[in-house]
Amino acid sequence: MDNQSIFQYSLETFPKKWVHLMERSEHGNRFDTNTDYLFKLLYFLKFHTYTRVQVLIDICGVDYPSRKRRFEVVYNLLSTRYNSRIRVQTSADEVTRISSVVSLFPSAGWWEREVWDMFGVSFINHPDLRRILTDYGFEGHPLRKDFPLSGYVEVRYDDPEKRVVSEPIEMTQEFRYFDSASPWEQRSDG
Amino acid sequence: MTVPATRNDLMIVNMGPHHPSMHGVLRLIVTLDGEDVIDCEPILGYLHRGMEKIAENRTIIQYLPYVTRWDYLATMFTEAITVNAPEELGNIQVPRRASYIRVIMLELSRIASHLLWLGPFMADIGAQTPFFYIFRERELLYDLFETATGMRMMHNFFRIGGVAADLPHGWIDKCLDFCDYFLPEVAEYQKLITRNPIFLERVEGVGFIAEEEAINWGLSGPMLRASGIPWDLRKVDHYECYDEFDWEVQWQKEGDSLARYLVRISEMIESVKIIQQALEGIPGGPYENLEARRFDRVRNIEWNDFEYRFISKKPSPTFELSKQELYVRVEAPKGELGIFLIGDNSVFPWRWKIRPPGLINLQILPQLVKRMKLADIMTILGSIDIIMGEVDR
């Protein structure tokens, strides 16, 4: 069984209302689903005999600020039994809560923490939803498109206070943007 | 005289971010009942550098120097996956000679990574000697890399469509010499370590992962293969030119730390086999022969053909990523290293998600140490083989 048959089989088997978009391409097949049906779809994919997608490879968050439901959460899955991969995607906005799949795939624990930390998408029923990669006491969700690359605060060790302090960022050099796509020579005065 | 009372409550001990061994900055908060471990909580994020956000603002060629800093011991794999992603997006074929050079570099990098896993693993257990031996071999690898790529560790060697430069004169002979030198060295390690009773006491039966558990927790790489599942992306995905070589997937059934050690040692030997076959079968042969044939009096079209090329140093800096999503993966020495790439019809990717094997493999640590003694934590942590550079990105 390869990618296409597992995709085709699952399409024919589960209720149509579970996916509202499917796409197949040579780069991988994907299902787009609603947050309500996400857990059911993953449960089906994991336990059904002819799909047996037992390995959760990756949970990825993507930010499309131009859309109404700006975040998209992508679950990359792998079936070692049938050697095929499939992607399940759902969209969410800042306040939607997605049901956690930790009970299905234990490896989702840290991935969901990372999506929460980086994007701000929270998960219901997650045993331990807190920040994982950012600093203690960090405010904001870094991978959103409206968060600047340099961040808002910088840290330094303050000798009088004998600890590390966070201060608003101080740029000693003006930000220079180099347009790599344009063939014209870039000059700093624009 | 009052007799001091013995307290029975649990101790919470912090194994702070700084470690004497080379795992990197990982903080473990361990709850102990005497010598038994009740719970262990890893805290990450000390090496988080925002690699994914930086990727959204760099072209691929600008981003290549960053990627070697994820897994800084197996650098060729991070570069390989960074160029594999746009290559698959744009359906770019890689010449066969470049593919062979890539495979040779990747397997040398795998040997280097497993060597530098072995040293700190033995040092954590208490044996200091192998640490020096592995660095002796690693220095030879650094020399090979330096002559081929210019840098000892952070090579920046791979390009979209091939490699940056062809192998220098005499490199193939040097590499074959290294392979001949290395195999008896691995035998020396095995004589020193594998049947050593102290080592076996520390390592056998420690950190057992059952087959079902390994699949559920999403493990990959040697951790999965040591639990009885012969899953190797090089065989399963048929990428680069691994199919042209004769090699086996190394796996064990026991699932404890000893099995992981055995898998990695045999992977090193298998890598040497692959390298020897690749060096003998490289299209065009050593660079001096290829050069001579190209400049031959009767100009033979074959030696200038696509298959005998590497790619030169300057692909277009404005390589546009089309608006597609794809997930590429490679069998890194630690596990399955993957990139989920969403292009945006521009030179910058819209989303560059790194799937590090270390993050997933580390997640199982709290469960593994639950019934173990304090000293076993380091053994298990060492056998998982993590690099915080890729866990935290």
UniProtKB/TrEMBL annotation, chain A:
InterPro entries: NADH_DH_suC, NADH_quin_OxRdtase_su_C/D-like, NADH_UbQ_OxRdtase_30kDa_su, NADH_UbQ_OxRdtase_CS. Signal peptide: none annotated. It is found in: Mitochondrion inner membrane. Its main location: mitochondrion. It catalyses: a ubiquinone + NADH + 5 H(+)(in) = a ubiquinol + NAD(+) + 4 H(+)(out). Residues 34-152 form the NADH:ubiquinone oxidoreductase 30kDa subunit domain. It is an enzyme of class 7 (translocase). GO terms for molecular function: NADH dehydrogenase (ubiquinone) activity; oxidoreductase activity, acting on NAD(P)H. Keywords: Electron transport, Membrane, Mitochondrion, Mitochondrion inner membrane, NAD, Oxidoreductase, Respiratory chain, Translocase, Transport, Ubiquinone. Belongs to the complex I 30 kDa subunit family. This is NADH dehydrogenase [ubiquinone] iron-sulfur protein 3.
